[in-house]
Amino acid sequence: MNRAITPDSLMPYIGTALLIIAGSFFFPQILTFDYLTQQLQIAAFLGLLATGATIVILLGHIDLSVPWVLTGAAILSTALVGSGDPLLTALAVPAALAFGALIGIVNGIGVAILRIPSMVWTLAINSILLGLAVLNTGGFNPKGEASPLMVSMASGRVLGLPMSFLIWMAVCAVITLFLTRTPFGRYLRSIGYNEKATFLSGVSTPSVVFAAFALAGMCSAMGGVLLAGYANQAYQSMGDPFLLPTIAAVVIGGTSILGGRGGLFGTVGGALFITLLTSILSVMQIGDAWKSIVFGVIILAMLLFQTMRKGAHA
Amino acid sequence: MLDYIRSNRREVIAAIVLLVLLSLYLGTHPRGASTYVLTIWANQCLILGLAAIAQFFAVVVRGIDLSVGAVMALTNTLASHLLDGSAIGIGFGIVAVLAAGAACGLVNGLVVVYGRIQPIVVTLATASIFIGVALMLRPTPGGAINYDLADAVTLDVFGVPTALVLSGLLIFAFWIPFRRTGLGLGLYALGSSEQAAFQSGLDTRLIRIAAFTLAGLFGGVAGLYYSFVTTTGDAGIAANFTLNSIAAVVLGGVLLRGGVGSLVGAMAGAFILKTIASLMFFSGIPSLAQPLFEGLILAAAIAVGGADVLRARNRLEVFGR
Fold first, then answer.
1. Can you list the domains of chain B with their CATH numbers?
2. How far is residue A218's CA from residue A181's CA, in Å, rounded to a whole number?
3. Using CB atoms within 10 A of its CB, is residue A183 exposed (0-12), middle (13-18) or buried (19+)?
4. Would you call B129 and A199 a contact, using CB atoms and an 8 Å cutoff?
5. What CA–CA distances, in Å, run from B276 to A125, B44, B269, B288?
6. What are the residue ranges spanned by the domains of chain A?
7. B30 vs B36, B37, B278, CA distance in Å?
8. Nearest-CA distance from B285 to chain A in Å?
9. What number is the average pLDDT over the span B229-239?
10. Cα dihedral angle (B268, B274, B277, B281), rounded to 10 degrees?
């Protein structure tokens, strides 16, 4: 199970390649360097969120507070920059990450201590954050702007590659190290398999849950900072369209929604695949209705293919 | 009586919370406990109540249905095309709307059982498909519902809101008999222990498909009732109802790990959730702070429901839950 690259996790990469090849027949511009690197840049937003979601899903839980952690981090960072104070501007990104970690810990309290199903507890936290944002901004679009640092994180390029993509890869590399080379990673997966057995082996399971949710919160916050840098502002509900694609990216990357099985390698492929699929559907200029249907059918087809492949082996 | 309370502790707690909230609501409402106030309240509650029932059928077999809101959007947009015109046409339309809901549920059930994919992921994907179909039927909100029929089911009967009459009928004419049928028992057996259910000779696949079909059917009923209350079709209603239906069943004492809870509890949870929202409206809390208080109350209510953990005699007990 320690193998990072499983057939399941390769699936989205194959899908991505197929999308590019099939798409290029109809739209030759897909094969240009500009288009592909732009996709990498956009995929980083979804990818960072999916990275956090992978950690929580490996644990056997789910984090539905992603949309408003993202929005909250974006509002917080742009407001700090908007204050005009150089010190506060410099603190914008760390403050947003701290905010994400804090919410993650609140999520962890409900899940690990109160033993509330994560699906409802994180949902409640999400609506509290929504309430805080509405109270704070008066329901209008929040004031403030992105700092030059945030803009370059989201839209800058290094050696032709998008900065946001590099940040995403760096985060993935660090978290992969955590997951594969530290006890934390082993405990995380073993809780996903069997929490009781893990607890009985002497692992402090609550602290693992806390750390996992805090990491996930920081990933969501990072996604929010990048999105705010990309749009040069924060806006209400900016995170809502990301919730379900995030879960889809994790799952088609071969991570089991029940926990314990999977990894970040597949998630990266999943995020690339979903971003490219959405983009190509937009390029094709078909209506929202068909976009939604095709999206659902393709996700379902990939999942069915995964289980059928396993069925053939069993 | 005491035994009844003890064995239905969760439903009883939910009912008491609901009564307290409702009396608070009627107490603070400027127009007091009039039929008019109650009718509006009951209509809103019943829409979410039906969505929660849909969610309940998925949850009780240890599943979850993220397509509840999408099925509502689909059936709502379908109803906005079919429920206007001749009486026969409307009758046919109602049947078609409910059949569409059940068909959505059937698709979910078939993919879950024969595709062997987790319900949460299946319904995530099918929800996208259903919303697509709904958008095709109604790209922008619009359409019409026969007003006479809508009035008949959303106003009151001799001073009692029709929505409450319908809720009562649902519980006494559907749930209580249904609970005693083979399928009703099978749902709980499957949710409590799939292996035990299978070894007792139950057709677990059929039961799971039936549970998701029922979830779809009630999603359809919720969409239909939503159409009667709003008299338009709108494809954009999905996300809210899905998430609220999950919160509602949990508030109503239905356990997400399956096998525990009842339709009555799910409805009570939905009524509590809607009453909290209505209570906010007249509470004098500044309108900008209302979403925050709504969220805080939701979190507190769920946390209280989870307070059982404090009664656990040893730490191992909490893992079984």
1. 8-307 (1.10.3470)
2. 20
3. exposed
4. no
5. 17, 12, 11, 16
6. 7-313
7. 12, 10, 13
8. 12
9. 85
10. -120
* Nearest Cβ partner for A123 among B247, B303, B315: B247
Sign of CA dihedral A202, A207, A213, A215: negative
**Distance between A216 CA and the closest CA of chain B, angstroms:** 20
Which residue, chain included where needed, has tokens 């990939």? A302
Closest CA to A306 of A3, A14, A1: A14
State the ipTM, two decimals. Answer: 0.84
Q: Helices A163-181 and A205-231: crossing angle, nearest 10°?
A: 170
CA-nearest residue of chain B to A136?
B288
Rounded to an integer, the average pLDDT of B276-302 is 79
Q: What is the distance in angstroms between the Cα of A156 and the nearest Cα belonging to chain B? A: 33
- pLDDT exceeds cutoff 70 at A115: yes
Cβ distance of B121 and A251 shorter than 8 Å: yes
- In whole angstroms, what is the distance from residue A294 CA to residue A165 CA? 26
Closest residue in chain A to residue B287, using alpha carbons only: A135
Query: Nearest Cα to B256, choosing from A62, A92, A144?
Result: A62
Kindly indicate the confidence band of residue B238, based on its pLDDT and cuts at 50, 70 and 90.
Answer: confident
Rounded to 5°, angle at Cα B161 from B216 and B24: 100
Residues of B in contact with A114 (CB under 8 A): 303, 306-307, 309
**Is A46 in contact with A67 (CB distance < 8 Å)?**
no
Q: Given 2.40.30, 1.10.10, 1.10.3470, 2.30.31, which CATH number is that of A7-313?
A: 1.10.3470
